[in-house]
Design brief:
By secondary structure, the chain is of the alpha/beta class. It contains 19 helices and ten strands. The protein folds into two domains: 246 residues, D-Maltodextrin-Binding Protein, domain 2 (3-Layer(aba) Sandwich), CATH 3.40.190; 213 residues, D-Maltodextrin-Binding Protein, domain 2, CATH 3.40.190.10.
């Protein structure tokens, strides 16, 4: 597939993501597939996900910069976009790129940080400039969307996996990036994390509360440590309509009630009794949280400041419980609790009325169609010679996908010393238990692409914000989500997904 055709497919994908109008929040005007180069104005810019530190303005441009021109002769240019946009991590990627270029003088590697929640705007702007990336670091939900747009080079992904060695990839991770129907390997697994409910174990013991592993346990803790208690709040409920963080937490709640976006017959099921019940339970936790909307910054800051007793977050938080996280304005949060890691417990599984679910993320390296052959070797390099350096930038938020990296990773940081071997073992083995809507094996390509669009479009966070603000009931929100998802699915199927 040539780059111009990939660009046309991207236009179709952008149509999918803007075709879902109406509802309680303003929506962009739907547009037809572009016949000329589009502009990067179709989707709103939203905050980074719960797993990423806020990027410095100079590190995450609104649109990706143009690539350096390829030198003459046999030289190659590899444009690598990374959603690891925190400045310290970007510096490590660029140091590794310089190391690679020193050993491969004919290759130029451009490391371009970006905010993953603006992936589609960035790709659209790059396509308009004729500068689509060769290699891009994205979460598994984006792989489905990029696959639906016909942008992936599956042969290149398989070549990278084979050069690393299929047997070195940990059990289950290759299946997550393989299309069950065709056997195509869509992207290269890279690292990942698991989501958990972190809680003040010392406070729970003092109050005689159970470990919060079920809806009932969460409700009991919420009512015991209600707003105005000690600490001030039982939790900070994610409710910001412009953050994927809200989707991540809600998806786990939904799965714990056996609520999924499609049934076995291929029908959209965003308005089932199970989904309504999940929305009602989630929004009900607002009673013991600060006023909505609340975002990822408020959630982690209040936990670190001893102002809340529970926190939904990924394993990226484990470093921050020791050193303090970066706030939205770039200042450092001071930990208000001595030995906070030692006083913190966590549970990665949530038991609901109709099931038990864990949630996690697999991050991938995706090679786009038309990418240079050198991009394959750069991807291999980031998985081999440069791998431990990348993992060390946030070791507990970057669980290795390679068996050969597991032992050196487990001793790569002093952060590990603050947590028990049982905790570390649970995190290391998270790939074996994590669930995602987009990973359900019976879903076809069109359904997975629709799920990617649901997440990218932030329709669930927008609905939840309106519920907790009192503008929608759970039933009305479910009907809105049903109509939006049906439209996304219709356009996906018509585009040949």
């Amino acid at each position: 597939m040539h780059r111009w055709f990939a660009g046309a497919m991207l236009g179709a994908l952008l149509l999918i993501l803007t075709a879902c109008g109406g509802g309680s929040t303003p929506e962009p005007t739907p547009v037809p597939p572009p016949t000329t180069a589009p502009t990067a104005t179709l989707l709103p810019v939203v905050e980074p996900t719960a797993t990423e530190a806020p990027p410095a303005p100079t590190e995450a441009p609104t649109v990706a910069p143009a690539a350096q021109p390829a030198p003459a002769g046999d030289a190659a240019v590899v444009n690598f976009w990374t959603s690891d946009n925190e400045p310290k991590r970007v510096a490590v990627y660029r140091s590794l790129a310089n190391r690679y270029m020193a050993d491969h003088p004919g290759v130029t590697v451009n490391v371009i940080p970006y905010v993953e929640s603006t992936t589609l705007q960035q790709l659209e702007a790059a396509q308009a400039a004729g500068e689509l990336p060769d290699l891009i670091r994205v979460g598994i939900e984006w792989v489905a969307a990029l696959d639906g747009a016909g942008l992936l080079n599956t042969d290149a992904a398989r070549a990278v996996v084979q050069s690393v060695g299929e047997s070195d990839f940990r059990e289950g991770v290759l299946a997550m990036v393989t299309d069950a129907a065709s056997g195509d390997l869509l992207a290269v697994p890279y690292d990942g994390w698991i989501q958990a409910l972190w809680y003040r174990r010392d406070r729970f013991e003092q109050l005689g509360l159970k470990t919060p592993i079920s809806w009932a346990d969460l409700n009991q803790a919420c009512d015991t440590i209600e707003a105005g208690g000690d600490p001030a709040f039982a939790m900070v409920l994610p409710t910001a309509g412009n953050q994927n963080y809200v989707h991540q937490v809600f998806e786990q709640v939904a799965m714990s009630n056996n609520a999924w976006p499609f049934d076995a017959a291929g029908n959209v099921t965003m308005n089932t009794p199970e989904m309504v019940e999940a929305l009602r339970f989630y929004a009900g936790l607002q009673r013991c949280s600060p006023d909505a909307p609340q975002d990822l910054y408020g959630a982690r800051e209040r936990y670190e400041r001893d102002e809340s007793a529970m926190l939904f977050y990924s394993t990226y938080i484990m470093d921050d419980l020791i050193d303090g996280s970066d706030s939205a304005d770039g200042t450092k949060i001071e930990i208000a609790v001595e030995n906070l890691p030692g006083k913190t417990g966590f549970t990665s599984s949530l038991a609901g009325p109709n099931g038990v679910a864990s949630y996690g993320q697999l991050v991938t390296l995706a090679l786009l169609d038309g990418a240079s052959l050198a991009a394959q070797d750069v991807a291999r390099f980031f998985l081999q010679e440069g791998y431990l350096d990348i993992l060390a930038t946030a070791p507990l938020g970057k669980v290795p996908v390679l068996e050969s990296a597991l032992e050196p990773w487990a001793t790569s940081s002093p952060v590990f010393e603050a947590y028990s071997p049982a905790t570390l073992g649970h995190i290391a083995n998270g790939y074996a238990t994590m669930k995602r809507w987009v990973l359900r094996p019976e879903y076809d390509r069109a359904q997975k692409a629709t799920i990617g669009a649901i997440e990218a479009r932030l329709i669930i966070p927008a609905a939840i914000e309106q519920i907790v603000l009192g503008n929608l009931t759970p039933e009305a929100a479910a009907q809105q989500l049903q109509a939006q998802a049906e439209e996304l699915y219709r356009v996906r199927k018509e585009s040949g997904g």
